[in-house]
């Protein structure tokens, strides 16, 4: 466009120079040239307007391009942030899973440690009781036994239980330390021929017995035994035929380590 403007200016100057040298003889031609110059000037004005519009359009397009670039950059930044957020969330989930696994593992180790501590404490208690000779118990029944046939006697009334080897729920003495133990028991049958047989058992093996036959009077029966026990051995009293047997303070079961 600048080249066209230069050409037009050169033509205008040439026209003005020719017209000034021969104004008289060439008036019609001059008038035509002036008209042509006016036409060219109008066209140049139109061209300038078009150029201005083109410049404005280019500026608008440049602004739109820059705006789109900014939007794309923001979207890329948001996507990067989203990806980082996703990665962070994945890391958090992995950390949570690892933490849960560690907590589970720690809980398992804690449980195993508790079991070991209990076993250690039990072993220490058994060793202390063995060394100090403090394993001893005396128990009785809080009420009488009536028609208590072929069943274990549950001596629920505890008078002494050093070492806690006797269980007043099951009626069983469980040996906590190896060695020799003395056991003794007694029953008291009511008169009118209401007798009671009582046997001592060692690990399901029946050993000695006592037999109280209540004739004209109440009758006491008892027996004593010494047993060599190993850790975990069990001892209890069980009836045969037992029509009636008095409870505390007439019936008792005792044992101690010697």
From TrEMBL:
Gene3D superfamilies hit by this protein: 2.60.120.40
Would you indicate the residue range of the signal peptide? Answer: 1-17
Cell compartments where the protein resides:
Secreted
Work out whether the entry's keyword set contains DNA repair. no
Q: Where is the C1q domain?
A: 130-258
Q: Say which domain of life the source belongs to.
A: Eukaryota
Q: What keywords tag this UniProt record?
A: Coiled coil, Secreted, Signal
Q: What is its main location?
A: secreted
Which residues, by range, are in coiled-coil regions? 65-126
- One Pfam entry name: C1q
- Keyword Signal listed? The answer is yes
The record's listing under InterPro entries reads:
C1q_dom, Cerebellin_Synaptic_Org, Tumour_necrosis_fac-like_dom
**Can you list the GO cellular component terms from the UniProt entry?**
extracellular region
- Matching PANTHER family, A to Z? C1Q DOMAIN-CONTAINING PROTEIN, CEREBELLIN-RELATED
Q: What is this protein called?
A: C1q domain-containing protein
Q: Which organism is it from?
A: Pinctada imbricata
């Amino acid at each position: 466009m600048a080249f066209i403007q230069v050409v037009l200016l050169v033509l205008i100057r040439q026209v003005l120079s020719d017209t000034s040298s021969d104004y008289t003889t060439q008036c019609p031609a001059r008038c035509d040239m002036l008209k042509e110059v006016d036409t060219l000037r109008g066209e140049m004005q139109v061209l300038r307007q078009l150029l201005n519009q083109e410049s404005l359009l280019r500026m608008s397009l440049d602004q739109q391009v820059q705006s789109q670039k900014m939007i794309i950059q923001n979207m890329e930044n948001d996507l990067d942030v989203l990806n980082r957020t996703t990665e962070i969330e994945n890391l958090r989930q992995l950390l949570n899973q690892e933490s849960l696994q560690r907590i589970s593992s720690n809980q398992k180790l804690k449980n195993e440690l508790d079991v070991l501590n209990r076993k250690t404490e039990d072993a220490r208690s058994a060793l202390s009781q063995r060394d100090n000779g403090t394993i001893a118990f005396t128990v009785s029944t809080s009420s009488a036994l009536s028609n208590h046939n072929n069943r274990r006697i549950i001596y629920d009334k505890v008078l002494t239980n050093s070492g806690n080897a006797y269980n007043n729920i099951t009626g069983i003495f469980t040996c906590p330390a190896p060695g020799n133990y003395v056991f003794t028991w007694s029953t008291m049958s009511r008169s009118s021929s209401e007798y009671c047989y009582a046997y001592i058992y060692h690990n399901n093996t029946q050993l000695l017995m006592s037999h109280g036959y209540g004739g004209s009077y109440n009758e006491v029966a008892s027996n004593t035994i010494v047993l060599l026990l190993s850790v975990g051995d069990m001892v209890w009293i069980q009836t045969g035929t037992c029509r009636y047997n008095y409870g505390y303070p007439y019936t008792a079961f005792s044992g101690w380590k010697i």
